[in-house]
Amino acid sequence: MMSRPKIIYPALFCIVILLTASRPLRAGGTDGLVDETRPLLHTFVQIKAYGTGAAKAVDAAFAEMGRVNDLLNNYDPNSEVSAINTFAGIKPVVLSPETVEALENAKRYGDISGGAFDFTIGPLLKLWGFAKEIPGRRGNEPGEKEIRAAKELVDYRALEISVGQKKGSSVKTGRLLKKGMRIDVGAFSKGFVSDRGMQVLKKHGIHNALIAAGGTICVAGTKPEGEPWQIGIRHPRKNEDMLTMLKLKDTTVSTSGDYERFYNKKGKRRSHIIDPRTGRPVARMQAVTVIAPEGKVSDALSTALFVLGTEDGLALVDTLEGVEALMVDDKGGIFYSRGWPQKVVIY
Ligand code: AMP
Ligand code: MG
Asked: 153 forms bridges with which residues in the sheet?
């Protein structure tokens, strides 16, 4: 049997600082606040929920998030996404509806970003030393030839989702067309899985809640006193400082940053978001924060915009309903989409 790989915990927690009082609390079944943090999705996931039955609802939400993560996690050899990777170029594998939904959503952001967002980025991540617990690369930077070879294996359009048959019923299957291709869900799984957690909380009658999964935060309703949730966006270079503070209701916010996973090589920062068009780590951005109606949208878009840069990124945001963005370029310049809720920079 294959052994389970070690969970990777990059320094993702606290990309976004919650300014709400954070008491580790588990109030019984009647009303009260439940505030619980568990390791999941290669980070720590915090759920805060208010209302009758909150404790049960939070347990159910964590269970659902764990279940869907087990389908998608490309670091878990037993996941459905790992099965697609293992059988790349060989055969299709049967997928659960959740995996199909997550991958189709990711394909959509591949399309609307013109390929800047590409969930088959795996071979390039490996080449640049990001497919492991501590990022870094032995020896020299990869050469043009190696980059070109890895780029040949990166193309989200080569994921074929089809209808197949299993024991007389119709099922959906997924297949990567070339051997060596590799899906990496890092750019969208936190958002997708957090949405599922929020849906479960709502099914349990919880309408005031927050789910924070690394760089993605989903909020439902308000805090119990009716105040909006307050979320601080950390400055990408000054650890202790905040870029801005948001007051949000019923929305999600995701941040992608070059400070989450990176290494330095000959004085240059090599960060974990790779431009599939050049095959190289993106160097022209420090951070991108996106507000959107759902986690699966904000998470995919924060990564997509990081690759696109300020001009193309903000032009894309303009075409999308209910989406706003704040972008910090490599020189520390701050750019906002037209409807960004507040243009106050706090540091
Ligand atoms: P996020 O923090 O949501 O921006 O996700 C970053 C992660 O997405 C990286 O650590 C990689 O696993 C993956 N990734 C890197 N570059 C890309 C890309 N161009 N498109 C999609 N996923 C990417
Ligand atoms: Mg993302």
From this structure: none
Q: Could you give the angle at the alpha carbon of 310 between the alpha carbons of 252 and 300, nearest 5°? A: 35
Tell which one of 159, 273, 308 to mutate to probe ligand 1, the residue whose CB is within 8 A of the most ligand atoms: 273
Query: Rounded to whole angstroms, what are the CA distances from 171 to 69, 101, 167, 174, 202?
Result: 20, 13, 9, 10, 29
Helices (H), the chain: 54-72, 80-86, 97-112, 122-127, 144-151, 189-203, 295-318
Residue pLDDT tens, the chain, 347 long: 344 444 444 433 334 444 444 444 555 445 589 999 999 999 999 999 999 999 999 999 999 999 999 999 999 999 999 999 999 999 999 999 999 999 999 999 999 999 999 999 999 999 999 998 889 988 889 999 999 999 999 999 999 999 988 888 899 999 999 999 999 999 999 999 999 999 999 999 999 999 999 999 999 999 888 899 999 999 999 988 889 999 999 999 999 999 889 999 888 899 999 999 999 999 999 999 999 999 999 999 999 999 999 999 999 999 999 999 999 999 999 999 999 987 666 55
> Does the Cβ of 308 fall within 6 Å of ligand 1?
no
Considering every ligand atom, which ligand is closest to the CA of 296? 2
Report the C-alpha gap between 212 and 43 in whole angstroms.
10
Q: Report which ligand 1 atom has the smallest distance to the Cα of 216.
A: 3
Alpha-carbon distances of 217 from 17, 123, 185, 222, 257, rounded to whole Å? 10, 29, 17, 14, 15
254 has which bridge partners? 216, 290
Return the best residue to mutate from 272, 284, 306, 327 for the ligand 1 pocket (most ligand atoms within 8 A of CB): 272
The response to whether residue 184 sits with its C-beta less than 6 Å from ligand 1 reads yes
Nearest Cα residue to atom 16 of ligand 1? 273
pTM: 0.92
Mutate to test the pocket of ligand 1, among 126, 156, 184, 185 (most ligand atoms within 8 A of CB): 184
Cα 80 to chain centroid distance, Å, stands at 18
Is 229 close to ligand 1, i.e. is its CB under 6 Å away?
Answer: no
